[in-house]
Amino acid sequence: MNRATIDLWVGIFVVIGIGALLFLALKVGNLATFSAGETYNVEARFVNIGGVKVRAPVKSAGVVVGRVADIRFDNETFEAIVSINLDSHYQFPRDSTAKVLTSGILGEQYIGLEAGGDGVMLKNRDRIRLTQSAVVLENLISQFLFNKAAEGKDEKK
Amino acid sequence: MPLTQILEHARGRLERLGNRVTSHVWRLGFASRFLFYMVVHSGTALRRFRLTVAEIYFAGVLSLIIIMVSGLFVGMVLALQGYETLQRFGASESLGVLVALSLVRELGPVVAGLLFASRAGSAITAEIGLMKATEQISAMEMMAVDPIARVVAPRFWGGVISMPLLAALFSALGIFGGYLVGVQLIGVDAGAFWSQMQAAVDLRNDILNGVIKSVVFGIAVTWIAVFEGYDAVPTAEGVSRATTRTVVTSSLAILALDFVLTALMFTGGNSA
Predict the structure, then answer these.
(1) Is B204 helix (H, G, I), strand (E, B) or coil?
(2) What's A121's DSSP letter?
(3) Is the whole model's pTM more than 0.90, yes or no?
(4) For B85-119, how does the pLDDT look when each residue is reduced to its tens digit (9 = 90+)?
(5) Spatial separation of the C-alpha atoms in residues B218 and B163, rounded to whole Å
């Protein structure tokens, strides 16, 4: 086998190898759907964030508009501080609401943003004031049982 | 049996055990020095890149068929098996996630590495071992040509460059195989297959870590292969033993390293 043929084959090999890597990055991975473009950072405080993790999606109307960048615990207010990177293409009013939601019944948890009515938009380093924490199943059940028990007492009287 | 004889016997056993341990440690040290020397003297392999290109041809291009066909079939089997389980939970749309994550994270690098070890690693060992047995290596030394720089380093770099590309091809073909079986044959929705896959596979956590794994496996396999070849007893039997050892050692090394790398990469708290 002469040099030119070997070079040609190695060239083909490298091209399809890199092609496979690109295929993995673009078609299989999430590079295309949410690139690390221009973002701005906002902060939200939650009493309970449930199962939200770093890099969890932030969705508005079901569309991914950002990702959770960092989760900290504030030892003075005993709240969770969630730092969110939002895509600069999307602007939200200052009085938007952030909620911890679950996709499906058993799905992953994400942060849902509901736009408010304020004319002023959120800027970098702003804070989302209206938040709604994760629904904790145990609390929900105990509340339900408590209500049931209270009803039962009323009927007895 | 008198006591002295028992002691003598025990001493012989202990000596043999100690000898085996020290010879293993010595070999490991020799292999590490060999790797260091090879990396330091790989200037020739990189400057006269044509030497390395020829080795990429032997290690990479000639492994293409086996890698691509195996990848395709592994992906197809994954899709069939995964569908059976997932559809019981009504989650057959997650088939793409299952196929892509298992290929990109584990099966791609590991199976491609095992195939690479048996296809290319054994060939490298046999070639270098035979060069040693036919005294070509000594002849080079006589002509003041450094055999490590001229023979060993190009093979090492050829293998290290080929392995990540082969693993990526394996994963890509596997996902394509999963698509063929899952979407075309079974009838999972194509949009859900791709979009759920894209939502779940992370560029850094999954794909980059898979590439890092394949680079590490490439280094391990080719290092073992060139070392076993260079260290082979220069007889027909010695070369055949060295070739066997290459395949066995590098397969074990891949599986052990895979565990270590997985433990480091995927248990880091929030990457789950």
Answers:
(1) helix
(2) B
(3) no
(4) 888 887 888 888 899 999 999 999 999 999 999 99
(5) 5
Instruction: Pick left, alpha or beta for residue B184 (phi over 0 → left; psi -120 to 50 → alpha; otherwise beta).
Output: alpha
Question: Which two structure tokens, joined as six digits, stand for B267?
Answer: 């248990």
Chain B nearest CA to A30, separation (Å): 5
Query: What pLDDT is attached to residue A149?
Result: 87
Residues of B (51-80) whose Cβ lies below 8 Å from A? 53-54, 56-57, 60-61, 64
d(CA B85, CA B95): 10
What are B43's strand-pairing partners? none
Collapsed DSSP state (helix, strand, coil) of residue A128: strand
Q: Do B203 and A30 touch (CB under 8 A)?
A: yes
The amino acid sitting at A145 is L
Place of tokens 């007492």: A153
- H, E, C per residue of A49-103: CCCCCCCCEEEECCEEEEEEEEEEEECCCCEEEEEEEEECCCCCECCCEEEEEEC
Nearest to A52 by CA among A123, A136, A130: A136
What integer best gives the mean pLDDT of chain B? Answer: 89
Query: Is the confidence at residue B75, as pLDDT, over 90?
Result: yes
Measured between beta carbons, the chain B residues lying within 8 angstroms of A21 are 164-165, 168, 211
Q: Which of B56, B104, B201 sits opposite A30 (nearest CB)?
A: B201
Residue B198: enclosing H or E segment and its boundaries?
helix B190-200
